[in-house]
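Please predict the structure of the following assembly.
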Amino acid sequence: MTSLAPESEKTLDKSRIVNDFSIHVATINGSGSQSSNNVLMRSIFQMGIPVSGKNLFPSNIAGLPTWFTIRVNKNGYIARKKEVDILVAMNPQTAFEDVKSLPTGAVCVSPVELKLDAIRSDVHHYQVPFTELAAQATDQIKLRKLLTNMIYVGVVGELINLDFKEVEIAIARQFEGKQKAIDLNVTAVNKGREWAKENIKKADPYVVERLNLTKGKIIIDGNAAAAIGCVFAGVSVVTWYPITPSSSLAESLEEYLEQYRKDKDGKATFAVIQAEDELAAIGMALGAGWAGTRSMTTTSGPGISLMSEFVGLGYFAEIPAVIFDVQRVGPSTGMPTRTAQADLFSAYQLSHGDTKHIVLLPGSVEECYQMAMDAFDLSERFQTPVFVLSDLDIGMNNWMANPFPYPTKDLDRGKVLTAEQLNKLGEFARYKDVDGDGIPYRTLPGTNSPIAAYFTRGSGHNEKAQYTERPDDYENLMNRLNKKYDTARKYVPKPEIITEKDAKIGLIAFGSSNPAIMESRDQLKVANISTSYFRLKAIPFTEDLRKFVESYDRIYVVEQNRDAQLRELITMELPEYATKLKSVLHYDGLPIDARFITDAIMAEER
Amino acid sequence: MVESTAAKAPATNRLGLTQADYKGSPSTLCDGCGHDAITSQIIKAAYELALEPHKVAKLSGIGCSSKTPAYFLSRSHGFNAVHGRMPSIATGASAANKELTLMAVSGDGDTASIGLGQFCHIVRRNVPLVYIVENNGVYGLTKGQFSATADIGTKSKGGDVNEFPPIDLCGLALELGCSFVARSFAGDPKQLVTLLKAALSHNGTAILDVISPCVTFNNHESSTKSYKRAKETEMPLHEIGYIPFYEQIAADYEPGSTIDVKMHDGSHIVLKKLHQDYDPTDRFQAMTTIYKANQDKQFLTGLLYIDEKKTSLTEMLHTVDKPLASLTQAELRPGKDALIEIMASLM
Ligand SMILES: Cc1ncc(C[n+]2csc(CCOP(=O)(O)OP(=O)(O)O)c2C)c(N)n1
Ligand code: SF4
């Protein structure tokens, strides 16, 4: 064990850094480190300290490097932090690079045989005989690799002063009901802990101390949160085709549906169909939406591309369906397990001809839950496909959140005419703008009235849904669709606007960039740059956008794509302010971090 | 009965509806198009079976054939999907409302080319619907290009020769385990209407491949899907009779020379043997018979295969008795306790 600059016990104490650091665990994909990382993160969370976890994994089942980052932060900053304070270097393939990129003064916990101390002398090295300890923990050779991961939990836990009672609780939870596994993992943790207690002379400043900031909070990923939202939104037909990072949304949705959506005889109030591809998935969702259920599909970029033709039909023929796009890096296959916000253009305008869609932009797991419900309401109210644009960072990473509130709003099933209503009315024209809001009335197949039936088609149609190629019919239809879209401005989730009185500059962003922006705004404040913040939650834009843009000298549009997609859309909406709009663009596949934003803005503002 | 001098009231079915009540808007297809002949038989079958129009949903893809749902059952909801992808719309609609009777019409281009994948998967899932392929060997709507069911050596109207082997949709459906496979001809109204009725009683995917000549692009000398050729080479497997659930089985079907298939709704399909010994419940025999007929350039028609017991998608979904589309908020949204339980599991 070597350590940097011999420090006296006293100075060490002074430089204690409490509840503010990041842990970076480098392992090999498929080595079973997921549970250990969860246990480590949960234990800190259970001590009342705000924490966030990000899994950086390869698009591969086994063998390639993976990193798990745990950010511990007393102020509740949960964005990615680029600097690594504590590295657990378990992966020989990447260890050299991992250690090289550490900042001075960081910690490196590693297997003794890797001899990483030879690489850097300005790092606190704690070299652990993992192989030996694993052999002591179990005589089953097969289990040793897995238990090695629990041993680093013990070592790191001892190092940062983790309360081991919490570790035991977290382990019990992780291996719920499997007593053998629980015992074995507790043993492994203790092996690491005891070894560290006896052998490590702590020379680094990072420790945790109990806080009370997580009581009553939950930890959940965005996909599971969205799934819960869908269950309470009353989704009935779910169609999907597996694709990272959206698969876990459909999978956890199916689990929750199985558990909470059966009648007393065990019969389902839902149908989940794994489609043969995304063309079929969206087709089934539209067929079910047309027939009157709340239907949805989940996918990511490549799936969205395939759905294009059908989504245009949904828009033009006015059929409800909800499409969850958990964004990953494109174009093409791109980087399937990395994050981006680059499907904004395609979701907004998916399909040929003049099309534009309602797009919801959740910025947290809470909003994944809430917007799932909003999406179904909007989709049925406006009789159109609605996109929910989440991303891999929100969708697949674990976030701390407040428990979700039970919905207070009834389901909005939109303008559907029943047989009784039809018979009273005596006439019905499917695409007529009766109320002047651009939204027509619809009937569902199976409605027992001689005037209920109409013909749904993606070709030109008049108010009565009859085929037509008349110029005026087409123009009227397109204009009404636009009017309907304008009406939607009043119904979509409102932006979150934070105004600072002395601010000269405004920030605009959406989705998973939010935590980094909040942290960056604090960093900018320290540098005497005050900012107001407009967090977009939906397209179409509401009137608030114009007001916000008008109010500031410069507007930084922060987004995670190369082509400034949001800034372009805002420019289309408010061309007169084009020159005010500047971009901060992050698109390397990793979640955006606060320092990146702060640096980009400081460079412009100085 | 004494003939009345007043204009005779049109005949009505069990529901009191006339055949005209099952019509749609006037056809805009070419005069003499096989598709219109099929439309007439669909109208007749629906009338004779006394289908409740509001319980029927008509679905199609894109093509001349796919336009036809507009020309029948105007009191039923219709859906003209995108090219080749009607099956997925039908699957979703079926899951949403299992009480609907789904009647789907597609073309050979729509089904065997762009839609082949969805065709396979609707069969594989055994979605309950009647799936009629109006097969003319060409793309009608885009003016006469070969489709994937065109026979080798067929000439297009412009003189091009097709060099690719055809996809036999009945053979494929059998291979995929389809529970009802039949083939017919637009020029054989008697057989077609009977097969349509039988298909409508079937609880699963009923594939009906109907040779439907395109008089504009594929009704010439060298066409294997022309009226003339189909008439000359048609080989019915059996004489087919259909007895709806509310009628007694007619006595003139002597046992021994007939096969009687009882359907899940209580109706019967009665098959009177012709020259050949053919058992439509034997899938292996059905496959070899089709392959042999294709080899011999024969055009077999009739009920090729039926498995009236195969589980349909509706049954596999294990949903509540009512259609999902009719469920109310109280049935769809779990109570507060459920959310509290979920939240507790995440703390
Ligand atoms: C995605 C797409 N590609 C191509 C077309 C053009 N298209 C319209 S109908 C058709 C072929 C129809 O042929 P078939 O299904 O055999 O029907 P028929 O007209 O012969 O009855 C094609 C290729 C289209 N509508 N959509
Ligand atoms: S082009 Fe052919 S298929 Fe189309 S309507 Fe005319 S005859 Fe029928």
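Confidence is low (pLDDT under 50) at residues 1-13 of chain A. Chain A has 20 helices and 23 strands.
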